[in-house]
Amino acid sequence: MARWAIGDLQGCGEEFDALLRKLGYRADRDRLWLTGDLVNRGPRSLPVLRQVHAMRDNLVTVLGNHDLHLLALAFDPGQKPRRLDTLDDVLAAPDRARLLDWLLARPLAHFDGASNELLVHAGLVPQWSVAQTVQLAGEVSAALQRDPRALFAQMYGDRPDRWDDGLRGADRLRFVINVLTRLRVCDAEGRINLAFKREPAALAAPWLPWFRAPRRATAGTRVIVGHWSALGFVRAPGLLALDTGCVWGGALTAVDLDDDERPAISVPSRQPVARE
Fold this sequence. Notes:
The structure is a single chain. The chain has 276 residues and is of the alpha/beta class. It has a single domain (8-24, 31-268), classed as Purple Acid Phosphatase, chain A, domain 2. It has helices at 13-23, 45-54, 65-75, 88-91, 96-104, 130-146, 148-153, 169-182; strands spanning 3-6, 31-34, 59-61, 110-112, 117-119, 185-186, 192-193, 208-209, 222-225, 234-236, 239-241, 251-256, 265-268. The strands form three sheets. Strands 3-2-1-12-13 form a five-stranded mixed β-sheet, covered by helices on one side. Strands 4-5-9-11-10 form a five-stranded mixed β-sheet, with no helix packed on it. Strands 7-6-8 form a three-stranded antiparallel β-sheet, with no helix packed on it. A hairpin with a 5-residue loop joins strand 6 (185-186) and strand 7. The chain is globular.
C-alpha cells in the first residue's frame, strides 16, 4: 500500500493517466492525496473531474483557487469566466450537478493526525496552528454548504491582507480562502502578498515564502501544497511542494508519503509551454 501525493492536475487528464500507470496505482491497495486545482487551464477539466469523482473512495483532495472559481461560475450568476478558463464543458455537462455538489463538499484543509501531515492547496500564515487552520477551513466549508451563492458573491478580492482573530463575516472568510488557496508569500508578521507569482529568488524584502516565516505555528507538521508552479518541487523538513507546472509545460509529480527515501515520480507535460 502507498499513499501518493500528487500536484495540481488542472485538467491535464492524459498526464494524470500516465502518472497513475507509472506509479502502478491500484485501487485495492493505494490512496491518493491531491493538492487541489483539479480543473481549469488544461484541456480536459471535465474528464479529470469525472475521473477523480469516480475514484473518490480512494482519495482526498482539497479545494484550490481554480476549483473555487469553477464553483463560483456555477453557483453565482454574477460571476463571469476569465479569458484562459477551460470550464465550459464542465458547466454544460449533463452530470454537472452531481460533480459540482461533490466538489462543493471538499474541504480546504485535511489533517492526518497519525502521520502529522496537513494538506492545503497554497499556504498558511505563521499565526495559524494546525488546529486553527482546520477550524477556519471548516468555517468556509460550512458557509459553502449554507449559501454558496452568498459566499461566492463576496469571495473575490485581496483584502484584508493581515490576520486578526476579530475578523468576521465576509472579510474573515475571504482571508481564509485567500491564504489556503492563493498564498505564496508573506512578511514575518503574516501580512500576505497575493500579487507575487515568480520564483523565490525574485523576492525583495519584506516578503518571503510563507513556509520560511519565523515562528510559524505549523513548523512541526509536514504541510503538503501545490499552487506555486514557479517554486516547483520541494521536499524539505515540514514541507512538500508538488506543483511542477504540468499545465504550463512542466511535469506532473507524485511522492510516496510513507517513504521519504523514494524519489519523486514525474511524467512530462503534454501541454504547450507556459502562456502567462
